[in-house]
Amino acid sequence: LGIPIGILVNNVGCAYCPDELCTQSEDLLWNIINVNVGAITLMSRIVIPQMKKQGKGAIVNIASSAELQPMPLWAVYGATKRYVRSLSLAMERELCAHNISVQCVTPSFVSTKIIQFPENFLGAMFATPIETYTRSAVFTLGKTQETTGYWTHAIM
């Protein structure tokens, strides 16, 4: 790339309606896999050589609490987010000798412009506003390989 890269944040995902695996279209399944697995893998592959040359860097991969347990009707989404965790932990071990830290963030419910949680879903109690969440998550960079990003997400 030839430009300094300090931090890469791999924050990708695609939402879809929950359904049984056997009823989901092949196109949808490939889209989930390509976005959640392919994008972070290939973006990391692109920036790592530059970070190695610089002798430092950080990669933050955003997974999801959906990776923490089997997710019926969300099986492929949960499985791809589990991949994000596994990749992150392996990359951390590969890259620590090059002063490149890799962190896996596993948020639960975060309210964004794209995804909002209504009050009847107990949104005020369970969904963290994006500004609050990101302020908290940033402080964990370089301190831990894995984080939920915000204290309430650790107890959900």
Automatic annotation (TrEMBL):
Q: Which GO terms describe its biological process?
A: fatty acid elongation; steroid biosynthetic process
Q: Give Gene Ontology CC terms.
A: endoplasmic reticulum
The superkingdom of the source organism is Eukaryota
Q: Which GO terms describe its molecular function?
A: oxidoreductase activity
What's a Pfam family in this record? adh_short
Keywords per UniProt: Lipid biosynthesis, Lipid metabolism, NADP, Oxidoreductase, Steroid biosynthesis
The UniProt family comment states: Belongs to the short-chain dehydrogenases/reductases (SDR) family. 17-beta-HSD 3 subfamily.
What's the name of the protein? Hydroxysteroid dehydrogenase-like protein 1
